[in-house]
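REQUEST ID: PR-0412
SUBMITTED BY: lab tech R.K.
PRIORITY: routine
TASK: structure prediction, single protein chain
INPUT:
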Amino acid sequence: MRPLEFTGGILSLIDQTKLPLKKKIVKCRTYEETAKAIKDMIVRGAPAIGVTAAYGIAIGAAAIKTISNEEFFKKLELICQTLRNTRPTAVNLFWAIDRVYQKAFRNKELSVKDIKQIITDEAYLIEKEDIETNKKIGIAGNEIIQANWTILTHCNAGALATTEYGTALSVIRFAHWAGKNIQVFADETRPYLQGARLTAWELQQDHIPVTLICDNMAGCFMKQGLIHCVIVGADRIALNGDTANKIGTYSVAVLAKENNIPFYVAAPFSTIDLKTETGEQIPIEERKPEEVTHIQGIRIAPEGIKVRNPAFDVTPACYITGIITERGILYPPYQESLFHAEAQRMQRL
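STATUS: complete
OUTPUT:
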């Protein structure tokens, strides 16, 4: 399952606001259209947002009509800033934009034509690396999954949130493919219903046994001993292990701790923001009230009601059993394990 495809200078996205009732493809031919697709959640999930932004830069750069390197980079900076302004919490967005821009800037002495090709090549590379990263996350996470477990997941951290496999759902997929007879409980994930609309649909497509539950049912099933493990994705992980993920994740983590259930975060290392010391420094996106007052365009709340709609919350590191990455599973204290994993990577370069 692939949520995006870049061919012929056009980025095709599965419109995730329409799933599972309708499969619609949105074609982005300009960087403005790409930015709008990110902001409107046509594409969502931190890794997928990052790849989409990289292709948005490639689309925008290709349309710049100048042979002046100075003028090209002025316009390129505008493109990058437009994409940065779409969503504030998912760090992969900024990571991908900075990576593409820096790759172009390091080659600023080349011709504009060559720099455009370098940008496109880097975007392709980010997508290719994301696929391999997600596969490694699944392989690493599979090691902790025992036979006959029921796994709870919140929001959608599947193929639709990445470029293939997923993060949390990659672990689930590899456990399923290993014949471990697992089952999944998927939280509906109000208010945008990514669990009900996307995770449940993805797992059905792969014939993985899945049960959809309301968000406020998780504690009940945990207390009954029906859930053995929780695995979620992440949009940004601070240096101390505090993790921003879809709103409601924190509540699930607290319930898991109370019921002695392991709680894992699955995410690529690019989601770890080594410049952010704690979760208190992570910006939390607040979205429009209509997402709470309406479902699929139908009003469910009184006219004029006051609404709060934070898209994410932060789960403190003390509730997180481990962080599953492509470099292996990291355990507390996270500041030490994160630095150790990064140091090992630097030694290999």
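NOTES: The chain has two domains: 4-134, 141-348.
REVIEWED BY: pending
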